[in-house]
Design goal:
single chain; about 500 residues; alpha/beta; TIM Barrel; 2 domains; 22 strands
Length: about 500
C-alpha cells in the first residue's frame, strides 16, 4: 500500500501491515517472552531482571518476562535519537519518517578497485574509506565499515572507530565484539567530546547490539547493551532471524520472532537506565535453501525490514535496517538492482537509519566504488520521498507565455531557482551522456567510472577540523591500547 500520510505533506509512504496485524504480532511476541522465555548468558543481567520482577532460572540462563516489565520499558523508551558530528553539530534526527543512509558495517573483506579481487582490508584501505565518506553528501553518517587485518584482532573494534574519528567528521555507527573493547571506544569518544556529560548531551555514535536467534543473548552482546545504556550511548538492536531456518518460514512468523528478540533487548536497556536511547533495528533475512545462504537483496528480506520498521513506528521508536545492499560479488547489474530496490523501499517506508551502502557478498565485503555508486542511489531515493509539490507553478499561464516567447526555459528565473532542488542530477559515475560523447570520453564502464570518481573525490579531501590537541590525544589513547594488546606501534598511516 502506497499512500500519503498527510494530505498537506507530499511525501509518499509504503506500508505492508495494518494496525490490527501489528497488534497481533505484538501480542504473540509478548506471549513468546512471557510464556516461552529466552536465554541470557550474563549473571549480572539475570539478577537485575529478577530484581525487576522477571522469572529467572540461573541454572539454565533462562528468563520469563511479565507484560508489566515490557510495558514499563516501552513507556520509558525515547521516541527520537539525535546524533552529532565530531565538531558537535547536529547531523541526524532519527525520528518520525526522517531518512538517513549509513554504509554497511564490519565487513571482513574489501573488493579491490584495481584488481577486482576480494581480499582482506588494510589500514590504508580504511583511511581511504573514511576520507571518501567525508565527501559523499547523500550518506549522512559513517560506519566502522570493515575490519583492517594489519592490527591485532583485540583492538580491531576500537581501531576502526579511532580511524573514523581521526579522518571523518560524520557520526559513526559501530559496535564491539568484546566486553573489553567498549571502554576504550567510550574513551575515544570522550576525547572528542571532552567529557562524559558532553557525550551524553551530544551522542557521537550508535552501537549495534545483536541477539542470537532464536531468543538468546550472549554474555558479550547483552553486556554491550548495559554498558551503552549506562553511558547513554544509542544502541540499535540487530535481531537476525532467518525465515525457514532459524525462524518460521512465513514473513509474519519471522516478524513475531524479530519483535520478541528486539523487545528483549529493549527491556535490558530500559531496566538498566530508563530513557536510554535505542533504535528498533535488525538484519533479518530469508534463507535460500538452494544455496544455504541469507540473501540481503531478496525481496522477502526487504519486505521484512520495511514491515518491522512499521512495528517500530507503531511503538514510537526510531528505526534501523540493513537494507540497500547486495549479495553480488562484483560491481555489476545485480549489485545495482538489489541496492536500488532496497534503498527505494526503505526510503518509502521511512526507515530512519538505512544501513547498507557499499556492501556486497552477504554483508561480508565493502567496495569503495560501489559506495560512490550507492551515494547516487541514496540521492535518488531521498529525492523520491520529497514527493511532488507546486513551486510557483500556479498560475501556469505566465510560464508558458515565456516558453512560447523565448522558445526555451533554460535561463528562465524559475528554472534557475528550482533546477537543483527539483531535478536529481547525479555525479559522473552515472552515465547521462549521448553515445557519441560517451565514446569520445573513452567508452568507460561503470567500474572504470567508479575508480575515476573515487580518485577524484580523494583528491578533494580535507582533514576534519578537530584541534591538534584532540588528534594527539586520540593517537595516544589508541597507541596505549595497542601496546596493551602486544603491538609496539600502529600502522604508519594511522599515525
Amino acid at each position: 500500500m502506497l499512500k500519503n500520510e498527510d494530505l498537506n505533506n507530499p511525501r509518499p509512504v509504503l506500508k505492508f501491515l495494518s494496525d490490527t496485524t501489528i497488534e497481533r504480532i505484538m501480542s504473540e511476541a509478548r506471549d513468546v517472552l512471557c510464556k516461552l522465555g529466552f536465554e541470557i548468558h550474563n549473571d549480572a543481567i539475570l539478577s537485575m531482571l529478577q530484581d525487576h520482577g522477571a522469572s529467572v532460572d540461573k541454572s539454565k540462563n533462562h528468563v520469563l518476562f511479565t507484560n508489566d516489565i515490557i510495558d514499563k520499558a516501552l513507556k520509558t523508551t525515547p521516541d527520537s535519537v539525535k546524533l552529532y558530528d565530531v565538531m558537535g553539530d547536529e547531523t541526524l534526527d532519527l525520528s518520525g519518517y526522517n531518512v538517513y543512509f549509513t554504509p554497511g558495517s564490519a565487513a571482513l573483506n574489501i573488493l579491490d578497485g584495481k584488481t577486482q579481487e576480494i581480499r582482506k582490508p588494510l589500514t590504508a584501505d580504511y583511511v581511504k574509506y573514511a576520507k571518501l565518506m567525508s565527501l559523499l553528501d547523500n550518506i549522512a553518517s559513517q560506519s566502522t565499515a570493515f575490519i583492517p587485518s594489519d592490527v591485532h584482532e583485540r583492538i580491531s573494534d576500537s581501531y576502526r572507530l579511532y580511524l573514523s574519528l581521526l579522518y571523518c567528521e560524520k557520526p559513526v555507527v559501530t559496535g564491539a565484539f568484546t566486553i573489553e573493547a567498549f571502554n576504550i571506544m567510550r574513551d575515544l569518544q570522550m576525547v572528542v567530546r571532552g567529557s562524559a556529560e558532553e557525550l551524553v548531551a551530544k551522542p557521537l555514535t550508535i552501537f549495534s547490539c545483536c541477539p542470537t536467534s532464536p531468543l538468546k543473548w550472549s554474555d558479550v552482546t547483552s553486556q554491550n547493551v548495559v554498558d551503552c545504556a549506562l553511558s547513554s550511548i544509542p544502541v540499535e538492536f540487530i535481531s537476525m532471524p532467518l525465515s525457514g531456518f532459524m525462524a518460521p518460514v512465513t514473513l509474519i512468523g519471522t516478524l513475531v520472532q524479530h519483535t520478541a528478540e528486539t523487545l528483549s533487548g529493549l527491556v535490558i536497556s530500559q531496566v538498566t537506565n530508563p530513557g536510554a536511547p535505542v533504535l528498533y533495528g535488525g538484519s533479518p533475512a530469508i534463507f535460500d535453501i538452494r544455496y544455504e545462504t541469507t540473501p540481503m537483496g531478496a525481496i522477502g528480506t526487504q519486505m521484512i525490514d520495511c514491515a518491522y520498521n512499521e512495528i517500530g513506528k507503531y511503538l514510537h521508536i526510531p528505526t534501523q535496517a540493513y537494507i540497500s545492499l547486495s549479495d553480488a560479488k562484483q560491481l555489476d547489474a545485480q549489485a545495482g538492482l538489489e541496492s536500488s530496490m532496497g534503498a527505494t523501499l526503505a526510503a518509502l517506508a521511512g526507515i530512519n537509519n538505512i544501513s547498507g551502502p557499499g556492501m556486497l557478498d552477504f554483508e561480508s565485503c565493502q567496495s569503495l566504488e560501489k559506495l560512490v555508486l550507492d551515494n547516487e542511489i541514496c540521492g535518488m531515493a531521498l529525492r523520491l520521498i520529497r514527493g511532488i509539490q507546486p513551486k510557483e507553478d500556479f498560475p501556469a499561464l505566465p510560464r508558458f507565455e515565456e516558453l512560447l516567447k523565448e522558445k526555451h526555459l533554460l535561463i528562465s528565473e524559475h528554472t534557475q531557482k528550482y533546477l537543483r532542488e527539483e531535478l536529481c542530477l547525479p555525479g559522473a559515475i552515472i552515465d547521462r551522456a549521448n553515445r557519441t560523447r560517451w565514446q569520445e570520453e573513452g567508452s568507460l564502464t561503470l567500474l572504470e567510472r567508479g575508480r575515476r570518481e573515487v580518485s577524484k573525490l580523494l583528491n578533494r579531501y580535507e582533514p576534519p577540523r578537530l584541534s591538534e590537541d584532540v588528534k594527539k590525544e586520540l593517537k595516544k589513547t589508541m597507541l596505549r591500547e595497542a601496546q596493551r594488546c602486544g603491538m609496539e606501534r600502529l600502522p604508519e598511516i594511522a599515525l
